[in-house]
């Protein structure tokens, strides 16, 4: 989904959150199992992708970074953690190559060159799929989409449960973002009010200078459940997905010559999606849900 596109929206907001998440993840995951927010299936349940023979594989080296929590970060004990890290381990387990599996963190800016130089075999770090990268590399099937959502101030008298109920009310959005463009395209009848930064947008929402906001569901999900929101607000309507505005989703990047490994990873992702293990990882890091 993505990191080069999402980094400006997420990195600063979530760097401090990484340590907080690691400390709370066990208790949050336990309570989340009761509500069980659903992860949309990105693979057809009837589809069966063959598992290629990996007997000749010497090792599978996943490359990631540590600056994109809750996807990849170092926890309070200095251990590499996150959604992507756990997913890489599950992929190796599903392919029965855990003994050959390695996960290494390097600076985000070095990921592309390291993969091209065969210093790793797959990048799982939230890189956005771009035409330029597609000319150099191949990508797995998407395993997670990061949607856009509305969040509303609970004190605002919104009569209805869909975006249509926001007609005529001020809806905040960050200026110059894909979410501003998406809001205009999807909801032309809404009265958009722009803000220079995410922090300014959320402050205005909390103070009810706007009745609702439209932004990245990842940020909003954590914000509404954090002390910073002071329980003022709740997610509203949606989720809204758009490849045009939000990209293809989160994928794994590999070298073009590694078609067998790419097929194997697609097989593993499809299996993890069907058997619920991908959902389990999702609940560890998104206990309040994105959808």
TrEMBL record:
Signal peptide (UniProt feature, chain positions): 1-32
Keyword hit for Signal: yes
Subcellular localization, as worded in the UniProt entry: Periplasm
Please list the residue ranges annotated as the Solute-binding protein family 3/N-terminal domain: 59-289
Q: Does Acyltransferase count among this protein's keywords?
A: no
Q: Out of the domains of life, which is the source? A: Bacteria
One Pfam family named in its UniProt record? SBP_bac_3
Q: Which UniProt keywords apply?
A: Signal
This chain belongs to the protein called Transporter substrate-binding domain-containing protein
Q: Which source organism?
A: Rhizobium croatiense
